[in-house]
Amino acid sequence: MFGEKFKRKYALSDKGISNVKKGAFWTVIVNLVVMSGMGILYYLMLNLMDSLTKGTALNFALLFIISTLVFIALSFITHLQQYRATYGLVYREVSANRLMEIYDTPLAKGESKFTPNGHNVVFENVSFAYDNEQVLKDVSFTAKEGEVTALVGPSGSGKSTCARLAARLWDNDFGKISVGGVDISTVEPETLLRDYSMVFQDVTLFDDTVLENIRIGKKTASDEEVKEAAKAANCDEFIEKLPKGYNTPIGENGAKLSGGERQRISIARALLKNAPIVLLDEATASLDVENETKVQGALSKLLKNKTVLVIAHRMRTVQAADKIVVLENGMVAEEGSPKELMQKENGIFKKMTKLQTQSQSWSV
């Protein structure tokens, strides 16, 4: 029973389990042999003690102490080697299984040509499961071009999953997701993502200069284009204070920048790319008031005339949204404008807004 639990936990093969058992068996054998030898030595010491001279008895006792220490050392080394062997086996086999999972994952393929009729993002009866757990169930809604559509709901309701499916970072199991009337499952992912900009809370930056980190949004952009995007994202304010300005290395994942500065770099990228669809995981949720104001100012320029899908965490930040889709347990529970949803008695959005408003007045 223990073997089966161990195997399931670490995804080990039958051969791997067999090797672990063999190692444990030989550990027990070595310990028994050493302990038996110590027992015989102790027996001889007790029986011969009376017939030994004082000096000989002292030497014998010293030999016993040394033998005991040797036993402890051997036992420790044996257990350490067994631990290393077991850990190494688990690490190798789990790593191999993960690699096989990657190799077995089917490649997302599609047409290299993408000519949508506008950029409305439409979910039609979309369902999705992750690791055999149903995340979305029969989800349908439309994020219209030129509007801000906010996804709202409790943690684990499927908001982030919808955003990832909308950009075909994952493929849905059932239903259809289309952009401008084109089923995105028929479009090659790299081609599709040319029409998307993403601004998430967890910004990925590289150990390079500010200039090159922003240029990732559009690799062919000139230095002037990069600086214009940075200015529009309110980045020039802090960039000018850096030792080498735009040519200053910012460290691994932007370690030399604050959270608000990193967010503005991400927005500058999106502005430079100028894609018609923006996926936004409420980028200001973890910022202080001053940085939030600056980031919001940059976002207002980015979102203008775009199809915007926002993953919202704070209800007050979506009051200006054109449409709100409330998710609960992976399904669409409510849908409408903020004003319409606030008028619904016992509505989820209304309840969440009320609770968050009350929490703002709490003090410790």
Task: Map the helices and strands.
Layout: H1 2-10, H2 14-48, H3 54-104, E1 121-130, E2 133-143, E3 148-152, H4 159-166, E4 174-179, E5 182-183, H5 189-192, E6 196-199, H6 210-215, H7 223-232, H8 236-239, H9 259-273, E7 277-281, H10 289-302, E8 307-311, E9 323-328, E10 331-336, H11 338-342, H12 348-359
Helix pairs in contact: 2-3, 7-9, 9-10
- Based on CA atoms alone, the radius of gyration comes out at 32 Å
Q: N- to C-terminal separation?
A: 50 Å
Oligomer: single chain
Instruction: Write down the overall mean pLDDT.
Output: 80
Q: Numbering strands along the chain, what is their spatial order in the largest sheet?
A: 6-7-8-3-9-10
Task: Determine the CATH superfamily of the largest domain.
Answer: P-loop containing nucleotide triphosphate hydrolases
Specify the overall morphology.
elongated
Task: Give the name of the CATH architecture of the largest domain.
Answer: 3-Layer(aba) Sandwich
- How many domains make up the 3D coordinates? 2
CATH class of the largest domain: Alpha Beta
Give a quick rundown of the structure.
Helix content is about 50%, strand content about 15%.
Could you walk me through the main structural features you see in this protein, from its secondary elements to its overall organization?
The structure is a single chain. Helices cover 48% and strands 16% of the residues. The protein folds into 2 domains: 103 residues; 239 residues, 3-Layer(aba) Sandwich (Rossmann fold). The chain is an alpha/beta fold and 364 residues long. The chain starts with a helix and ends in a 5-residue tail after the last helix. The protein has a 6-stranded mixed sheet, with helices on both faces. About 2% of the residues have low confidence. α2 packs antiparallel against α3, α7 packs across α9 and α9 packs parallel to α10. β7, α10 and β8 form a beta-alpha-beta unit. The chain is built from 12 helices and 10 strands. The chain is elongated and about 100 Å long.
